[in-house]
Amino acid sequence: MFTGIVEELGEVVAVEERTDAARLRLRGPLVTQDARHGDSIAVNGVCLTVAEVADGEFTADVIAETLRRSSLGALAPGSRVNLERAMALGARLDGHLVQGHIDGTGTVTARTEADGGTDITVSLPPGLGRYLVEKGSITVDGISLTVVEAGDDHFSVSLIPTTLALTTLGHKQPGDPVNLEVDVLAKYVERLLGGRTAPAREEADR
């Protein structure tokens, strides 16, 4: 579990293509300070398991399902990535509860400079719009953000200078892909409400 508060802007050192998979080697001196084999580190919002760690770098394997659902397959040596270690129990929850399980990818469609920050609009894959509400939370490339506008096929967020300086969103331009994870609480509520209403409908049909 993560918070969506990026700890470090890391860099892809190497990408090893494998059959329906890939192994990434990434530089992140901060997140590797106490990292061990088997630990979880979010890379652009994707929860990956540390395979090896040494000299401020770590490697992680990315399976076909993750490559299909996320933008990690587009990474190349030199790509910048948002890095966050798994949250510790008892620590402050400055963002929101983030699983690191990507629901799909969106595309930056607009970027507008605003007073004191930048507004970004992102397209939504079909079916995800129902989980967003204004002032709710969404994770974009591993960053916990507040939704400003929630549409059926898009949403917008406002970024403060600190977010622009310390994350990949400072460099994203229209046309660039981003990983998206909606608030898991919304999905649980939908599931629970669906389960409660089904028996009522069945009883009415008898």
TrEMBL record:
Catalytic activity of the protein: 2 6,7-dimethyl-8-(1-D-ribityl)lumazine + H(+) = 5-amino-6-(D-ribitylamino)uracil + riboflavin
Cross-referenced InterPro entries: ATP_synth_asu-like_sf, Lumazine-bd, Lumazine-bd_dom, Riboflavin_synthase-like_b-brl
Molecular function (Gene Ontology), one example: riboflavin synthase activity
Superkingdom as given in the UniProt entry: Bacteria
Subunit details: Homotrimer.
Catalytic activity, EC: 2.5.1.9
PANTHER family: RIBOFLAVIN SYNTHASE, RIBOFLAVIN SYNTHASE ALPHA CHAIN
Kinase recorded as keyword: no
Purpose of the protein: Catalyzes the dismutation of two molecules of 6,7-dimethyl-8-ribityllumazine, resulting in the formation of riboflavin and 5-amino-6-(D-ribitylamino)uracil.
Repeat positions for Lumazine-binding: 1-96, 97-193
Protein's recorded name: Riboflavin synthase
Native source species: Streptomyces boncukensis
Pathway(s) it belongs to: Cofactor biosynthesis; riboflavin biosynthesis; riboflavin from 2-hydroxy-3-oxobutyl phosphate and 5-amino-6-(D-ribitylamino)uracil: step 2/2
PROSITE patterns, per database record: LUMAZINE_BIND
GO BP term, example: riboflavin biosynthetic process
Domain Lumazine-binding, residue spans: 1-96, 97-193
Keywords: Repeat, Riboflavin biosynthesis, Transferase
Pfam families named among the record's database cross-references: Lum_binding
EC class (word): transferase
SUPFAM superfamilies, alphabetized: Riboflavin synthase domain-like
